Amino acid sequence: MTKEQLEAFLEIVRCGSISAAAEKFFITQPALSRRISVLEEELGYTLFCRQKGNRKTVLTPAGKVFLPIARRSLLLWKEAVAVPSLMDKAALNITAVSSITDAILASVFKRYLAENPSHKVRSTSCHAMEGYRYVERGSSDVALVTRELFFANIIAMPAFREKMVLVTNKKANYPPVMKPRQLDPSKELRVPWMLEYDDWHDKWFPPVALPMVYIDQLSILEDFLNGDNWSIMPVSAAKKLYRKDVAIGEILNPPPDRVTYYLQRRDDERDAIQKFLSCLHQEISHIEGVTSYLK
Predict the structure, then answer these.
(1) How much is the CA Rg of the chain, to the nearest whole Å?
(2) Would you say residue 220 has pLDDT above 90?
């Protein structure tokens, strides 16, 4: 079944007769009829009713069923032919944990689109396990997550690591360097950054000690940075806080650095992904306290 055969069939249906369709293609009526006959032989059924003296073409029951199939088939053929031109214009689907989206990706997207003006970007937020699922089923091209898991068809590689810092309100006058035992857990604004952070937290603070608030969205945290309240967060997130009365300090015996992994399918080797990772490397290399592995 060829593109010419599909176009011939659809044009005959549209025009209502073989003679009118033949004029559209600038070919003879017998030549167009032969295209349809060959198509019918390949399919194994008749598409049009042949009635002597009736110039108007009428679809057979099989032809009526084949009509939407022919339309979809021709559309797919056109999409297949357009692949080379779509490669540079296709959207890159990026998903990331929300703190990375909020703190880092806006500047990365700006750089990526500036360097690749014909490209498009779609961004979504996810939890770590969701990121793997999105990449696995193809709804995301790249995911940035904070857990390394094994999936047979996914590459999970370290993208960067960053230190964890103490964030407080300047008016609270916290020392620039604090020991964990000096921090009041009832004043904590806690965020579930990663499993390693939870283990560190359980080591230094009583499990029964409840934080002031438990938040999973960085954008909400700033509203609670008042009085003696404090929070521990990755340095990239701390430096993206909008409030001017925020102080960033260090912790003795700090939590483990947060490591962010990038995920992509093993069979996806598009240049767009490498270009995105290059832009990510350039952006995070300027953040003090962040070490990039994307060299």
Answers:
(1) 30
(2) no
